[in-house]
Amino acid sequence: MSYVLTTAGVPATQQFDLWQSAVSQTFVPLEATAGEHSAFRGRLRGQNLGSVAVYEASADAHTVRRTARAISRAAPDYYKLSLQLHGTAKLTQDGRQAALRPGDFAIYDTTRPYSLAFDDVSSTMVLMFPRSMLCLPSGQVEQLTAIRFAGGQGVSGIVSTTLVQLARNIDDPQVHGSVRLARNVVDLLGTALADQVDYADVPAETSRAAMLVKIKSYVESHLEDPELSPGDIAAAHHISTRYLHKLFSEAGTTVSGWIRHRRLERCGQDLADPGKHQLAIGVIGARWGLVDASYLSRAFKTEYGLSPSEYRRRSVEHRAR
């Protein structure tokens, strides 16, 4: 279910208070100051896709601050991303300031103070997600907060285009509840951040983590290929198969184990999706590279403790409550 809030129809003296309360409850506690006008136009719409909050905020000039006092009241462990859709904004954190124009985005950390200033009427796409969803070490991400990622080039351009499309379609019924879509967007963001790592100037463990982010993003986009192999993955990243296995071993898993886990997660998401209820279980498995129906059934039950058909039935019963 999408969430929509607007200050339209609210007495002018109450409009900004309503806005500050809405953004604080939707994201994290914030302190805000309005521009010079007595009335304040603001509109917030979006939804939570699993653990990822996806919202578009359109408003008159104002500034929001994540202060030490607000952090002391509640310090959820999240990253936020702001993509500028219209107008301009200035994000400040960790001694840096990113001036954002339409198409640009920047990332910031809710556990440390920051501010966002909108000097005029603007519209912003905001993502908020648990910090654990990014594979990069937190110390490395800290070096990338309040850094402008240009919307028209490289991987950051792909992220920008994806988010703009998401903003345009946020009310589309096919987007509602699409946890997989949100996860893919965060994975793509991780790739854009990893591209900023200077492998020559960072500790070896950081460069390995950044490489792992890129590899996992590649695997995510090739899960439907039943022939996907460690050799293919290593060759695509110009590393040896042995080094590939080492990267996953250091992360506490194996290449094949992680691929299987992600394929089963994708299958589980499809099995729980009402829009895919008519798809046969074998068809769902095949679309994620698991073409052997008997193997799918055994692996799924090992992973989730339920057979695919039982998992689908439980999901239907849960939605009916």
Automatic annotation (TrEMBL):
The keyword Transcription applies. This is Transcriptional regulator, AraC family. It holds the Pfam family AraC_binding_2. The keyword RNA-binding does not apply. One of its GO terms (molecular function) is sequence-specific DNA binding. Keywords: DNA-binding, Transcription, Transcription regulation. Residues 213-314 form the HTH araC/xylS-type domain. It comes from the Bacteria.
